[in-house]
Amino acid sequence: MINEGNDRRGFSGYGHSTAHPSLALIKYWGKADSVENLPATPSLAVTLDGLKTETSVWISLNTGSGNTADAVFIEGVLQEKKRFEPFFREFRRLLEKKKPDFSDFTIKAESSSNFPASAGLASSSSGFAALACACSGAAGVELSRDVLSALARIGSASAARSLYGGFTSLAEGKRHAKQLFNENWWPEFRIIILELEKKPKEISSRKAMEQTRITSPYYNSWVKDSVVLMNEAETALGNRNLEILGPIIRKSYLRMFATMFAADPPVIYWKPISLGVIRLCEEMRAEGISVWETMDAGPQVKLFCTENETGKILSRLEAVFPDIRARVCTPGSAPV
Ligand code: 2P0
Question: Based on the domain organization, do 200 and 136 belong to the same domain?
Answer without folding.
Answer: no
